[in-house]
């Protein structure tokens, strides 16, 4: 049975990364195809488009890091590389006919609610209107480069990992890498073999869990998965289930968490024999507290003859290198900033105004907050996909994005049938949800005393502190009591379910 809509909702999706693609395919499958996807970049893929640094690898196994609606049996590696993931996104966009909806090089500067719908303006001044706006704008989008005195006097090359310059030649050069997160660790491993010298400058050591990240996926596995969609679905379901164990490790202080933490400590002990270096690489907080770094090559790379770890504070950049607090000047040709992002910016900077001109900066003056990751009080007919509190630390992002998109289609259906014109989450429901989040955050490993990008400026942790089952329950059927639903349209033509 399908529903014959009275009117098709006009939808603008902002962003063509994992969240935007999930939303677009989900809407299309549900019969809502009057949408455009506005993407600031010159291609789809989001973080996988913007990040092209050497060694880029996803630390989530490929059979899990894929859309539920687009299984890919033949990943070449168990942990796929950035370029392969990026190709996959392009293939999915083609396979599901999203190209015709896509407007690349289209940066949204303004989105303003006019009482009934949204007026969206691009950087080139083009205006479009929509009944619904879906903000699929991502969390790690704006690269952070520290302001180091003297940086503008440096005569060599500088690059941020999230804006890699493909023409940059690092072979035979003296390379400085600043940062010790997932990116720093990957880029050190990739650049060290070709460098004349690689110096990694770190402020805080990270636990680096060993895993054979370069492992190829057997061709037999690909054949088996391709031969039977049922087998593939089962493998995907088992992967989702298994990732639940990881979520549990993060959420509750049990023996499972302690075992994982021991593994991280063992990874360091087993691979780094030099006591001085081991001490410099040993964090003073619990493993898993920051986003866990995984690598099978980093400790080898940093112990190579042409590599050096520097933990002294950087005081300035000179024309020819980097000076540290001990007064030493480290001569370098290239500085690679693996210094992360301004996280939690989501739609910002954007002139996003909801009901009565409410600006998103006012609504989020005390930090980003939403109801169940997707609805914001004061912003009718606007939903986020992978918005605040998304599970960047535990549950599959694709699963979460698809679930949220399906939840949004419930509202699209009701708009289509004339049952509502606008829908806006209440402040009370949002406050209740955020109180529950704050309470559930207590025993999580992210709250055990480290500083990570998970924290907002207001010291809240911008992650999902519940399990996947709770997420599924929360995002299956909307609870009308949590929303202000306005229907001013003539609903005399209310739909009748029709078999078509
Ligand atoms: P992260 O994890 O935010 O790491 C950024 C790194 O840069 C981290 O080691 C920071 O040290 C370091 N940093 C930042 N500013 C400075 C200055 N001024 N001096 C020295 N070091 C600095 O970003 P990534 O790109 O590695 O990873 C982001 C996520 O992408 C990752 O978690 C995965 O989910 C994928 P700090 O620890 O703050 O002392």
Describe the SSE topology:
Layout: E1 11-14, H1 18-29, E2 35-38, H2 47-50, H3 82-95, E3 102-103, E4 108-113, E5 118-122, E6 127-130, E7 132-135, E8 142-143, E9 157-160, E10 174-178, H4 182-191, E11 197-201, E12 208-209, H5 219-227, H6 229-251, H7 255-271, H8 275-280, E13 293-294, H9 298-302, E14 307-310, E15 314-318, E16 321-324, E17 329-331, E18 334-337, E19 341-342, E20 351-353, H10 360-363, E21 382-384, H11 397-416, E22 422-425, H12 427-441, H13 468-474, E23 483-486
Parallel strand pairs: 1-2, 1-7, 2-3, 4-20, 7-21, 9-18, 10-11, 10-18, 11-14, 12-13
Antiparallel strand pairs: 4-5, 5-6, 8-19, 15-16, 16-17, 22-23
Helix pairs in contact: 1-11, 5-6, 6-7
The structure holds ligand NA7.
Overview of this protein structure:
This protein is an alpha/beta fold and 500 residues long. 29% of the residues lie in helices and 17% in strands. It has 2 domains: 2-61 and 81-141 and 343-498, FAD/NAD(P)-binding domain (3-Layer(bba) Sandwich), CATH 3.50.50.60; 151-206 and 290-337, FAD/NAD(P)-binding domain (3-Layer(bba) Sandwich), CATH 3.50.50.60. The protein has helices spanning 18-29, 47-50, 82-95, 182-191, 219-227, 229-251, 255-271, 275-280, 298-302, 360-363, 397-416, 427-441, 468-474, and strands at residues 11-14, 35-38, 102-103, 108-113, 118-122, 127-130, 132-135, 142-143, 157-160, 174-178, 197-201, 208-209, 293-294, 307-310, 314-318, 321-324, 329-331, 334-337, 341-342, 351-353, 382-384, 422-425, 483-486. The strands form 7 sheets. A 5-stranded parallel beta sheet has the order 3-2-1-7-21, covered by helices on one side. It has a 5-stranded parallel beta sheet with strand order 9-18-10-11-14, with helices on one face. α4 links the parallel β10 (174-178) and β11. α1 (18-29) crosses α11, α5 crosses α6 and α6 (229-251) packs across α7 (255-271). The chain starts with 10 loop residues before the first strand and ends in a 14-residue tail after the last strand. The model is unreliable at 490-500 (pLDDT under 50). Bound molecules: ligand NA7. Residues 140, 146, 178-184, 203-204, 291, 314, 338-340, 453 line the site of ligand NA7.
